Fold each of these.
Amino acid sequence: MIHYNQSTIQNWERFYRANLLQCITGFKSANLIGTINAEGVPNVAIFSSVVHLGSNPALVGYINRPIAAAPHTLANIEATGVYTINHVTTEFTDKAHQTSAKYALNVNEFDATGLTMEFIEGIKAPFVKESNIQYAVQLVEIVPIRHNQTFLVIGSITDIILKTITPASDGFIAIEKAGSMACLGADAYYTGQLIQRYRYAKPNEPTQSILQNIC
């Protein structure tokens, strides 16, 4: 058994500490957030912190790093109020990861990383054409997290685009069939495999599976 205390954790080398702490919080979805600034320069950046916040209304959030470390996505969202979230798939993991590089403000990161912009009428922010699951988001609120100068960005989902997959009768989407990836740490990407689904849990009733004979 290995036991690290808070003092040890705090004294780790920066990248070692960040990688380990991002690993212990588990697998996360790999998403590209597409934005555009007031001057019309598109931006795309990878995020592993997108989280479901509610279904009615349909809200999602993500954590933006401190402005000094990651200024462009947040500034663009503040300027336009709209952004897109695009699942990363196995076909373009390398290009998606490259968006984590710190490009200059005037650089179109779609062009710089080899990704393709896709626009839908009525939505100002660009989508990632290579992505099979995409959704557009309208800014609702930016919540400063003062303890570490990060921001919780909350948005309302306005449009959903599914290119290669159809939801089941109950709304379930088997995202692994669309090639959607998970990520771990700062630089590792994983494919998903469905193990089991269960029916809605109720007190004093046995757990019931929806799928049978899952290998």
Note: The domain at 28-191 is CATH 2.30.110.10 (Pnp Oxidase; Chain A).
Amino acid sequence: MIGAFGLAVPWPRTLCAVGAHHRVYEREGWRIYTPRHAPAADLAGHLTFALKYEGLDLLVLKTLFRAAGPAPIAATVRATPTGSYARRIWFLYEWLLGEELDLPPAEKGAYVAVVDPDLQWTAKGTASPRHRVRNNLPGTPAFCPMVFATAALRTFHARNFVERARAAVADVPGDLLARTAAFLLLKDSRSSFAIEGQHPPQDRIRRWGRAIGEAGRRPINLDELLRLQRIVIGDARFVHLGLRFAGGFVGGHDRETGMPLPDHVSARPEDLGDLIGGLAAFDRTVAPELDPVIAAAVLAFGFVYIHPFEDGNGRLHRYLIHHVLAERGFNPPGIVFPISAAILERIDDYRRTLESYSARLLPVIRWQPTDAGNVRVLDDSADFYRYFDATPHAEFLYACVERTIEVDLPAETRFLRAYDEFRLAIGGIVDMPDRMADLLFRFLSQNGGRLSQRAREAEFRALTAPEVERVEEIYRKAFG
């Protein structure tokens, strides 16, 4: 259909074909079906094949409906008015385009789900009597990325990470848990800046950490995003706060000509208000019905593809992950998952995840450079940011959540327990201020548990040789 109608849309990540063999198999981005799966060589046949086997690509469908016009869609419904696929196609046409076909309401046919839950993630759904379908699309016409129900996501979903996270901290004393939470919050804030290649002053890191700690308490809308942008930017003398007035892209410039070299082209400024409204509606009405991690991935990566601000988009994108997880009670009480730290550990996978859509989108966006070294998008591109395949993003985020629960939370509580043991044992040897004990620990940790000759002769020259040996033994017992 993309080829037959000349649709300027990104190609799906997996393409389907009919082969000569009587078995279904996948190879190098293709899923090969048997001759008996071959669709009729017309629009209705190929649409039915897509809904039955390929799942919904809403961007392809909306672009196709505009190109084909209402007549062939109405004819498909009239040919099989009680057919489940015809009624789903009919509903999708009207839902995506906001235009009713010249058809009377359906009178017969059992209600059927618009999205096949065996293929893609769905919302609970509401009935559409006109089409006799159940609208279980995981979004609204203003914003509805789709997520395939892959084996990886089904496994993640079944593992009940909420209970696993609570179990990871169940036996941690309250004071230790509070310190763990404070450290993880600061760690996530620092990591979120580090992902952007920034190393701001400590007070700015703490200010953003406090904002992350309040995630989930306020609904997401334009005003809230503007408030968060002001916090994350801080000094706005050289940054425009608010929605962009000009185009935007992620990438670099040619060193000689200054020509933009985009890796990703952001949404047009005239579309930003409507797209942010779509995000807000998704957060308010649809996200509560979805798996929390999948909802967080859809909202956060949708935001970063839109890229509505001149600066701060990446950190707000990761804030939205915290927002959904906290709002849904996914975190243990009082704990903020250090998602940014987990992302920083897998930064190459993170970039590949972002590129899973950007690289397919870039060839179909028509743009021209501006005199200011920016880009100007030449066509209506809003739908590119409403409808995309968020499956890689959900799988990546779930992997980060798994690492946080299985590795980071236990490791941090173990570290703080060991550090308390170290500080208590040091106090049995010599009385020293907290800052000196912290400095002693840092010197030991940086030098494999041994106090360097320089430290012995400078900051800790007051320690005797036997005391140094005992300090090093204490460190080894506490930290291994």
Note: The first strand starts at residue 15 and ends at 18.
